[in-house]
Design goal:
mainly alpha, about 75% helix, binds phenylalanine, about 450 residues
Length: about 450
């Protein structure tokens, strides 16, 4: 059924709605929680620079490819890939790309919802004055108290999953589009307020130097790992490689420009990540706290500052509310591909499909949250379930999906097809895009993956 002009699931009402939704997918915990602490772990500026290169050289071309495939297929990623491949006389096994995306989606949503649960809990804590006068040990104890309490984690995880299912169950127009229309502007306003506040209450200069002055010496022997993390962060943050952007593209009208949309979405995502850094690190530095403290960065470090600064209770509440919005507009996009597939292939109503998909991710999420407490003794490659899912999706599955998307758009689809989708202008822009998806992206991602996973070293080449 390729070439249809609308999707059976509905359509975005305007191009702006698509951009808001896709930016809503992209902007999430990845930007505000994951990006600052990962940048912190690799020492700041050098990591940020590599990250920006990954976004521009790999992320944007792959995002264009993903939107393009979705819009041409107009179905869930599994069926889109099968239909597009069959139409070119290629093996229907390309639908495996869609299946891999569904797997990645379940893994991501399971831990995503647990972390989003922390942010819900922290909205309440901030509003209730729990940070007032707290010191480093106190803040750590507060965080450990939450993370160590499986039942409390389960309650918040459940609430967040219900919120996600509620939006997706309402459908493309009155669920997804309606929620991003108010949450995205609200998120942006809150973020700007937070940066202004951080500049006033913290050390903006130190934060800017930390983020924007690359010091490659800090990467040293961890360079391969740092590059893999930066690339994984780019895939995760831009929502690429698992079908979220593809399914959103399937609801986009024919006349909208894919290139311009992708650039705007990626630019918004990057801007938000950098602004998040500028909201967090000034406070971290002004209080002599540790930027490389890992996943606890915003949950342990920031509350100390919020507890000390005038207005900290209010701004703490705003900050964690912002995070909830960011996470919510992302989680709906992680659930959408599997819901679209259940509706297409199993004849489910959207409501049933959403509940079933959400329930699956919810169950997996229980394993994630137990890995933080009761199961903390069980690890694989030194990681508990939550960390393992996070690492495996961002650094392996999403990049693999990205390679396949690039190869499909660059090598399987005929030139005329992609040229047509991208506006029909056979100029420098189109040719650069095609060169990037045919050669640069697949090769760069493969090399970074192999190198970062230590395969070259294992073969004695490193
Ligand atoms: N991009 C989201 C974030 O930054 C996470 C996400 C990953 C969403 C993959 C959809 C698909 O938090």
């Amino acid at each position: 059924m390729t070439g249809t002009t609308v999707s059976i699931h509905g359509m975005w009402s305007t191009r702006l709605a698509f951009i808001l939704a896709a930016a809503g997918s992209a902007v999430g915990l990845g930007n505000i929680w994951r990006f600052p602490y990962t940048a912190g772990e690799y020492g700041g500026g050098a990591f940020v620079l590599i990250y920006l290169l990954c976004v521009a050289g790999i992320g944007i071309p792959i995002m264009m490819a993903e939107v393009l495939l979705g819009r041409r297929g107009r179905q869930s990623p599994i069926n889109t890939m099968r239909a597009l491949a069959e139409r070119e006389g290629k093996t229907p096994a390309w639908s495996l790309l869609g299946w891999m995306g569904i797997l990645a989606g379940f893994l991501i949503l399971s831990f995503y919802s647990v972390i989003a649960g922390w942010t819900l809990a922290y909205v309440l804590r901030a509003a209730g004055g729990a940070f007032a006068g707290i010191d480093g040990a106190g803040s750590k104890a507060l965080f450990d108290g939450l993370v160590g309490d499986g039942e409390r984690l389960l309650a918040w995880h459940t609430i967040f999953m219900v919120l996600t299912v509620m939006v997706v169950a309402r459908g493309v127009a009155s669920g997804l589009e309606r929620s991003v229309r108010w949450m995205m502007p609200a998120l942006f306003v809150l973020l700007v307020v937070m940066v202004v506040y951080a500049a006033w209450a913290g050390d903006l200069g130190a934060a800017a130097r930390y983020l924007f002055a690359p010091d490659f010496a800090r990467l040293q022997d961890k360079a391969g790992e740092a590059v893999l993390s930066a690339m994984g962060q780019a895939f995760f943050s831009l929502s690429l490689g698992m079908g979220a952007i593809m399914v959103y593209g399937s609801y986009l009208r024919r006349d909208a420009s894919i290139a311009r949309s992708a650039v705007m979405i990626a630019a918004t995502d990057t801007l938000v990540a950098l602004l998040a850094g500028l909201a967090i690190f000034p406070i971290v530095f002004a209080h002599g706290l540790e930027p490389g403290s890992g996943p606890g960065l915003i949950f342990v470090t920031l509350p100390i500052a919020f507890g000390e600064i005038p207005g900290g209770g209010l701004f703490g509440t705003l900050f964690f509310t912002l995070l909830v919005f960011a996470a919510w507009t992302s989680s709906i996009s992680i659930l959408e591909p599997v819901v679209a597939w259940l509706v297409e292939n199993r004849g489910f109503t959207r409501v049933r499909a959403s509940i079933l998909g959400g329930a699956g991710a919810w169950l997996l999420g229980i394993a994630c949250l137990l890995s933080l407490n009761l199961w903390s003794g069980y690890t694989l490659f030194g990681k508990g379930v939550l960390d393992l899912f996070d690492y495996l999706t961002a650094n392996v599955l999403l990049p693999l999906g990205g390679i396949l998307i690039a190869v499909f758009a660059g090598w399987v689809l005929p030139r005329s097809a992609t040229l047509d989708e991208l506006g029909g202008q056979d100029g420098v822009a189109y040719r650069s895009w095609r060169f990037l998806v045919r050669y640069v992206a697949p090769m760069a991602v493969t090399l970074v993956l192999l190198n970062g996973l230590g395969l070259f070293k294992a073969m004695g080449l490193g």
